[in-house]
Amino acid sequence: MTIEKPKIEASLSDALIPIVILITLLGGSVYLFEDNSSFGPNQIALLVAMGIAAIIGLKNGYSWDDIEQGIIKGISRSLGAILILLAVGCWLINWYLDVSGYRSNPYLLWLRPVEPFNVLRRQLPYLCHSRHEYW
């Protein structure tokens, strides 16, 4: 039988420590890696700040299951906004490709039922194309 520690509310300093560390690490990664900071150092900074926040939660008496449930609750609350941003991003990419001269055709991609034989028949010359000859 294990004795559970009482759960303590996070103090202001407990709440600010991960945020200050995250801002410091993000600033350091941008200072050190400049344009390349988004290829990995920023994600490492997020993981370090997340780990520090989890350690503070464990220090305050929360179990790992409580922390996992909090993570799941936070992600599920923000999922609607994430999906909206994803849809807007897809729309903007489609608009950008359309403006730049690449004509995507939603009728061919989404609205018409897929006809496997016709798709294969149209794609066969491209699949069989070698550099110097056609089959």
Give the helices and strands, then pairings.
Layout: H1 12-33, H2 41-59, H3 64-99, H4 106-111, H5 116-128
Helix pairs in contact: 1-2
CA radius of gyration? 25 Å
Please provide the count of β strands.
0
Share of residues in helices: over 70%
As a percent range, the share of strand residues is under 5%
**Strand pairing plus helix content: what structural class?**
mainly alpha
Low-confidence stretches: 130-135
Overview of the molecule:
With 135 residues, the protein is mostly helical. The protein has a domain at 12-96. 71% of the residues lie in helices and 0% in strands. It is built from five helices and no strands. It is flat and about 65 Å long. It starts with 11 loop residues before the first helix and ends in a 7-residue tail after the last helix. Mean pLDDT is 79; it is low at 130-135. This is Na+/H+ antiporter NhaC. InterPro entries: NhaC_Na-H+_Antiporter. Keywords: Membrane, Transmembrane, Transmembrane helix. The chain crosses the membrane at residues 12-33, 39-58, 79-97.
